[in-house]
Structures are given as structure tokens and as C-alpha cells.
Design brief:
- By secondary structure, this protein is mainly alpha-helical.
- It has helices spanning about 5-15, 30-35, 40-45, 60-70, 85-90, 90-110, 115-125, 135-145, 150-155, and strands at about 20-25, 50.
- The chain has 2 domains: about 5-50, 50s Ribosomal Protein L19e, Chain O, domain 1, CATH 1.10.1650.10; about 85-155, no CATH class.
- It is built from 9 helices and 2 strands; from the N terminus they run H-E-H-H-E-H-H-H-H-H-H.
- Strands 1-2 form a two-stranded antiparallel sheet.
- Helix 1 packs across helix 3 (about 40-45) and helix 6 packs antiparallel against helix 7.
Amino acid sequence: MSKVTLVRRMAGNIMSRGQSKIRIKPSAMDDVKNVLTRDDVRGLIKDGKVYAIEEKHNLSLYGKKLREKRKQGRGRGPGRRRGTAKARHGDMDHKKRVRAQRRLLKVLKEDKTIDNEQFKHLYALVSGGTFMSKVSLLTRIKSSGIELSNEKYEKLRHI
């Protein structure tokens, strides 16, 4: 594999573009021959010696107008919506929330605030999507008779 092909492949990977869209300036061929690592390629990209051709966006005029209208809020009303607000919010939000709640449970278990049995019970509730936030989980823990000082409560809210 020649150095030019290597640089083109690495630059395409770094810039998230196809190899055929990567261009190398003819004056930079000496620099390209000395490239060994991805960091070297990043340096060439930063210097402008390796660059990517602009992406073409073949959009219809109707599509452009529609996007502009949607930016203004048109076509976003209740008549266009299918699914609940939770369903429209996306999957990543759910994952972030569950991971945060599991981190909180782990800290509580390590502090010996909750025992293993309580941990398992609360973990199952978190997995089932019972709690909408860490605060609702903490409220549930407090209401179940587990002692949490106000200082500890505030600290746990921001883990």
C-alpha cells in the first residue's frame, strides 16, 4: 500500500468521508511520504494539506421549504404526533436515566446505606422504569424508612 493510499484511507476515517472524496495538495507530497501515524495525518488536515471535497446535498426545493417551516414550529402540533411524549423523547434519554439511577444505587450500597436485599429490589424497579429521575428514586428510598440526612440527600442528587 502506497503512502498516498494510506493517508487517504486514514484521512477518510478521521473526517468520516469516503476515500474518493479526500484530496491531497500536490505541494504536500513530500510530507505525505513521511507520514507514519494518525496524528501525523491529523496534522496534515489541520495545515490544510489534506482536505475533503464539500458534500453535495441534492435536496428538492420543497424539502428546503418544509425544513424552514418546521424550524419555525409548523407541522409539529398535536395532530402530527404519533406516540406518547416518552416515546417521542428517544431511547438515549432512557439509557442515561437508568445508568444514573444504577450509579446512585451502587453508591448507596457501598456506603452501607441500603443492604443487598433492598439493593436488589430497587435495582429491579429501576430496570422496570418505575422512576423518572434520580430524585424520584431518592424520594422512594426516604419514604421506605431508610435514613438519609439532608446533606447526604443533596450530595446524592448530584452524583
